[in-house]
Amino acid sequence: MNYSTEFRNHEDDAWYTVMVTLEENETLRVTYEKFTDEEDQLFIPSFFDSLEDLRDFENRFRPLSIQVQDHECRKLVKGVKVCASQHFIPNDLRFYDANVESVEEHPHSRKKNEECHCKFILSWLHGPNTGYMTEAEIGDICTVQPIVELDPAVASFLEIAKRRIELKSGQEIVACCNGEIETKKKPSLFERMQKGRRRAKRTVLVDGSPKGLGSPKVDLDENMEDMVLEGKRNVCMILMGNLDKELSPSTTVEFLRKHTQVSASVFIFSSLSSEIYTRGAIMSQTEQDFQKLCDFLTNPNHIIISSTGRPWTVIEKQVGLRNIKASIGTFPGSEDVAQDGKNRTSNSLKVVYSGTQEFKRASALRELFLEFFDQQVRLHKKLALLEGSEFEI
Prior knowledge:
- The protein has 393 residues and is of the alpha+beta class.
- It is built from 8 helices and 17 strands.
- The chain has helices spanning 51-58, 152-177, 189-196, 224-228, 249-260, 287-297, 321-328, 357-387, and strands spanning 5-8, 15-22, 28-32, 41-43, 61-63, 66-67, 81-87, 93-104, 119-124, 133-136, 141-143, 236-243, 265-268, 278-284, 302-306, 313-319, 349-353.
- Strands 6-11-7-8-9-10 form a 6-stranded antiparallel beta sheet. It has a 5-stranded antiparallel beta sheet with strand order 4-3-2-1-5. Strands 13-14-12-16 form a 4-stranded antiparallel beta sheet.
- A hairpin with an 8-residue loop joins strand 9 and strand 10.
């Protein structure tokens, strides 16, 4: 049983120790270490519609990461990419990539074997804490190994799938020339995976087993939010800041439909009474609509302002339900969220164009808000760092 490969699972985006085998019918089987056979994943060449899909799939395989030993801690310097564990609910441990941001050095214990007590600040590259920094110990960290060559089974499967895609592309070109090809939008690789198999539930127990990437499995029930949002897993979101508190979602929906012909879902969030603005989320179900909205909202030749002159500001863009939930947490229960017990008023919107006095004023106000927002982000990261470490007030 050769578990010498890591696979980045599509469902939770975490790395798992796996064994890959190419079966007689050209099916690639991914077997997870210390999980039952029922958790195996099967991939067939016809599952991939494009070389882009295939490249994404290829990048989800790599050699097994190696646990860093206590005496090797000096290798973990700023900028080094690692694969490290994150703890969620009790007994839940998953592995994601991160960069080392800084190291807080402490003397090593030499009573028995050398024991590292250093603290490592990690900036997460994917997973639920993407973009945030947390503190880790040496036992949480593995070094990512260079890909000298892919596992032979994966390499063979990729070659078979590539030939199928190239052959299919040639056939589609002929069909297009004959006017026979359909223009129906094809689902993405991840959409097909979600449709083609039940949801994976993989969690790892922390049971005192050796440091590394494999431990027994427990199942977790889906929480209520996942059940409510089922069917919105491929949603795209644009998180907006500096909105007027009186702005209503219905006004925003109509305004966006008028200028982009896109019917988006709009959420306006509650804010503190001391705040003079609020945030909102504009969501679409397709990447095509998402791109139209982005083009309109970030066009350098105009700015969207409220009736009070407050300029809209794009704070963040996210694709995929998991990323969105990590970004803003729980969704409001309704698109029309009440503020301070009152319904939001319409608060009209308008577009001001470059070269006008309104544009100059809105541009200056937007720059001021972005400066304020960036300072908040830095303070939040510092607070998260302090909360995750031991310090005296």
